[in-house]
Amino acid sequence: MEIVMSILAGTLFAAGVYLLLQKQLLKIVLGTALLSHGAHLFILTMGKLNRGAPPILEKGIKIYTDPLPQALILTSIVISFGVTSFLLVLAYRTYQSNKTDMMDQLRGTDDE
Amino acid sequence: MLHFYIFLPFLAALLIGISAKRVSRIHTGWFVLPVPVVLFILFSTKMPILAEGKIVQSVANWIPSLDIQLSFYLDGLSMLFSLLITGIGSLVVLYSIFYLSKKEQLVHFYVYLLIFMGSMLGVVLSDNVFVLYTFWEFTSISSFLLIGFWFYREKSTYGAQKSMLVTVFGGLSMLGALILLSITAETNSIRTMIANRSEIIESNLFIPILILLLLGAFTKSAQFPFHSWLPDAMEAPTPVSAYLHSATMVKAGIYLVARFSLIFSGSDEFFIIVSGIGLITLCIGSFLASRQTDLKGILAYSTISQLGMIMTMLGFGTGAAALAAIFHIFNHATFKGSLFMIAGIVDHETGTRDIRRLGGLYTFMPISATLAFFGAFSMAGIPLPIFNGFLSKEMFFDSSLKLEQTSGFAGLFAEWAPILAVIGSIFTFVYSMYLVFGTFTGKAKLGQLEKKPHEAPIGMLISPIILIVFVVLVGLLPNLINEPLLAPAVASITGDFAITHLAFWHGFNTPLYMSLIVVVIGTILAFTLKKWQPIYNAIPGKFSSDYWYQSLINGLLKFSSVFTKSYMTGSLRLYTSIILVFLTASTSIFIYVTDGFKISFDDLAPVTWPEVLVGFVMAVAAIATIWMTQRIAAIIVIGVVGYGLSLLFVFFRAPDLALTQLIVETITVALFLLCFTHLPKLKKSDKKSSEKLVDFVIAASTGALLTIVAISSHSSKYFDSIAKYFVDNSYELGGGDNIVNVILVDFRGLDTLFEIAVLGLAALGIFAMIKYRDKGDMNH
Q1: Which residue, of B104, B121, B250, B735, is most buried by count of CB atoms within 10 Å of its CB?
Q2: What is the mean pLDDT of residues B48-68?
Q3: Does domain A2-55+62-102 have CATH number 1.10.287.3510?
Q4: What's the Cα-to-Cα distance from B611 to each of B648, B709, B714, rounded to whole Å?
């Protein structure tokens, strides 16, 4: 299962990177969302999958799945949510100010 | 004790820097003057100890783990340099009090000068090579600051930059040599290196060490082809030129060669490189000096050629040559120091240093003129017993005739050395005459001067007078300084303590005839200078080292600007691609080289269909986003991936993650929908198929790399997860059954706090962006 999930994480990453390299801002935002999904899956796979009960203590159960990756991912989900929403609004503002959402028209000025 | 001597100038620099502005009525120089004077006296009191053949030393630990100690020791060679640094330093500070007006940035000037003084003392007293290197670079920096003292002049900054680049290049080469030396000899102490010199001489690294070390010495001492920084350094105030660029700092290279000469001399390579470069420098420097029109320019080329002469003698490696070199270091400091000061006086009193506008100044400034004649005649080596320059020059001729090298190329070169020595000395004679006769005799051109010339104030004359007194005194009684000063210094170069009697008259011998040839031909050339001077214009500019320096700098600037522009295009996509390609390539190479890829099927969870099915749908959806042209469809497809992930979280027994992911995904989709009305429609990519291919390759390889890393790290687990600690202690220490939650709010509580902070910042940013949207563009 771990190998299947590794491949899935790689696929999500590849799709995310491809979108990241596009010109349109919205696609770039979508790309970052895919990247974070891929990263979460990657971290979860690193802690081995399905090796026990859900990490909630119960009497009589000795073996639990690794709680540490889950804690990391939980933090990460929230942060990537913040980043995605920030980027969305940034894209929206950029479009409003510059009347374009194409990256190659959004280069800095020469005297920057 | 020696630590205190080196520390004193730095301490004084600090105090002057803090306090001097408050007492502006008195010239800052008066507060500085006691420092070199006191140090000079302190060093002088040690002379009797050295005359007995002993040394003074003091050691303090600095970085013992790296074997770097602040160990200083004072032997004959260090003593000679220390006395020059503090003695000439005192005279220069005194002179500068009258030379620089109170309106100048005096605090800066004296702080730099004191830093230089302290670091130069550090160079000549250090025993640890890395301490020596540190002080060495300090002298380069203070020289840079002093040359650029009048930083609003373009030429000053140019000269400062040039000297910095050249000497720091040499300094780094020298650092390389010192590192190699310390590896080969397994010590950082110069004395231990000299004691174990056979290890260095027999090592394979001998030649690289020699060349790197000499690069440091040659750049610092302005030897050919690195000499061109010294004439440009003449933009510094004249006291600085007299001090750093003739008497002390430029002799640091000489010091270095002398200090290591016990290790290197005796090898033919050392003889050929040091004496060869020295003789070339002597000839080129003296030849080019007569071309200059600026008084300080003449003196700069003269310094170059004199340094070449001293270098040559050190290269000879015989005891007599070492004595001549040491003697000439002293003599050169006296006559060249005084000549620089006179040049400064002429500049100060007439407003120009251009020799074409000067002339006939003898009538207006007789004292300065007399001093200048003494200095110049001593430099030219006029055979009279009142000029110390003649004595050391004749010793130079003598030693060039008694070389020990007889075989091979070195022997051939040894036969030519006396001839080159005479040629160099002839031109030395010519420029010395050109300098004084051009300035002080002939018809005065008062109309071309900015001021009416008159004699300098007595304060400015004291320092050159003292130096000229030394010129005459040492010329008359050379043995006065021989036993206390010269002999111990020679002993540090050759290793044996011996006193050679110095005398003016040796009878009619070859060196005397050589001197006479120099005087006769020199006089003829000096008086016909105007006729043959056009030769200089025939030399193409391509032969000058200035030309090469400038081409190198221009080439470097052009290369870096072309190179930078080639990738700094302003396109963020290009930057992202470069970063990704670099990341992928470097990681793949690393995995390949270290054989890091591993795959094992031993410890896997069983494959079950629901998970695989969900994963398959996610993969399809993720890839599908690339071709979506409908915004709503793109959002839905992204949603499929997100919800699919939360399903996977459920399967993989991560209930908290599943819940959070569900909520976040829902809000995100809602956000996307909200932004819809404002964002333009998705367009089909208008990229060329080649661009698409590049994007595809980058994306596919990044994804593949992630998979490989994931599989490899899963297949090579070297230790158990640290999760056991959290499982065991979750209830006892954290008081909760939900381990993930306990980790977040208790064990890693600070992480969560910062996570909240990030979220808060993002919210603030969003708020700001939306709130201020109607108030116009931020750029306005």
Answers
A1: B121
A2: 81
A3: yes
A4: 7, 22, 19
